[in-house]
């Protein structure tokens, strides 16, 4: 059975259909890459799934439960967790505190939550920055912090919005390894990314979006051969 | 934990204060006993200002609204203590301790039943108006129940003691100590408890907090409750030396607002340091300036800080 089902999902901003009738079934433990040109609606899709935006129409079913219209914190608590394309940490708080808030979702005890947060921080490779004010982190550190906050919620589905953007290739490699590891641990991933090498390296299936529509969906190697996809998106870069 | 920048600001402000007082002693041309008396009076007045600013800064910092009902809630807490003392005959300071959870419940209820429903994407103007309405409602309810005739809460510790030759009113000393305890308690809650962590996260970025599983509306209710509890303690501690009328809280609100902006929105240490500083500035200023001169000094200082450091002394850099 599918873990996540999007049934005729649409979202309009005024007259603009940022998402138009998306139908998608995502299997448990799947790694789904999502690509598309700027403004294709990728971020909007993640925002709707995370409960931040209410869909104009359509339904979201997670693990057999209709979660359409749930608040963001409730969605996060059941394990559907997103990261931000533009990182926004709680700047006046330390890295450890940033992550501990997420850990507290499942853990009441303060020392236990801090230990949990510290483990997650080590895992994403931010160990030396634990007590730094999060506002002082460089871009690569902020990306890792976004990941750490999401992981501390022990998600079943991770919605990743361009976690590699703004990183130089040497900074990307360890994050790509980490993402592979997270997936192998049993987390389902929706991976919005512009960096094709990473998308192709990690994705089991690939969704191409264009103007809020699904343009193509399938095995990555096939999808990128598709003439329509090349026209709409890959044309310029290829 | 103090960041180094905050540390510098505290040290700087402390140095300015100490140097200023020393200068008044040395070059002010005033009798040194008079100066000592003025400093002690200023510190105690500062304690009062700290008390009335704490709840305001918390609510302002997290919910992003000025609580127009601050003054009315202060009066409400004073009457609550008056009621407990006059009807049950308990010690007013025990009544203060009891009024804190009652005011917490009141604040929590107001936020979760009224204001949370009005918080939408359109902004914070509607909850703001609710606090205005709440202010009128509380004042008039107090007027209806207790009338407009001034009442007073007798302190069992009325009287004064000598500090370095200066005379200090005991209820005011107790209020000062209470201010420091409430500020310290709030700092501990904000730094060390899961709820405090969530409150700070919501203050920094509400959307981000909701995405890590924080129920933002619950945190709003907790914050308004905590703010109201601080106001509750404040009202109770001020009652023994305040003439109790339904508008008794209003005299403090303008200066409380100045202190909150000065100290940085949402900053408890800022309210503590700012309140004491303003108290000192006002009384020491009165040695040299007649009439409302000291207040002009305070507002001059306020404008200067806004100009040099718009986020307030302890506000986060934006
Ligand atoms: N809050 C909003 N209000 C109005 N329009 C919006 C809003 N958010 C997104 N849009 C519009 O919806 C469309 C889809 O935007 P979205 O951010 O989802 O694209 P994207 O695929 O993530 O693009 P990018 O690759 O640049 O991140 C765009 O035309 C955008 O301008
Ligand atoms: Mg985007």
Automatic annotation (TrEMBL), chain A:
CDD domains: ABC_Mj1267_LivG_branched (cd03219). GO terms for molecular function: ATP binding; ATP hydrolysis activity; L-isoleucine transmembrane transporter activity; L-phenylalanine transmembrane transporter activity; L-valine transmembrane transporter activity. GO terms for cellular component: plasma membrane. PROSITE patterns: ABC_TRANSPORTER_2. PANTHER family: AMINO ACID ABC TRANSPORTER ATP-BINDING PROTEIN (PTHR45772:SF7), CONSERVED COMPONENT OF ABC TRANSPORTER FOR NATURAL AMINO ACIDS-RELATED (PTHR45772). Pfam families: ABC_tran (PF00005). Residues 4-236 form the ABC transporter domain. This is ABC transporter ATP-binding protein. Keywords: ATP-binding, Nucleotide-binding, Transport. Coiled coil: none annotated. GO terms for biological process: D-alanine transmembrane transport; L-alanine transport; L-isoleucine import across plasma membrane; L-valine import across plasma membrane.
UniProtKB/TrEMBL annotation, chain B:
The lineage of its organism: Bacteria, Bacillati, Actinomycetota, Actinomycetes, Micrococcales. Its main location: membrane. Keywords: Amino-acid transport, Cell membrane, Membrane, Transmembrane, Transmembrane helix, Transport. PANTHER family: AMINO ACID ABC TRANSPORTER PERMEASE PROTEIN, BRANCHED-CHAIN AMINO ACID TRANSPORT SYSTEM PERMEASE PROTEIN LIVH. This is Branched-chain amino acid transport system permease protein. The keyword Membrane applies. The chain crosses the membrane at residues 9-28, 34-52, 59-81, 93-115, 127-147, 173-190, 220-242, 254-281, 287-308. Belongs to the binding-protein-dependent transport system permease family. LivHM subfamily. It is found in: Cell membrane. It is a multi-pass membrane protein.
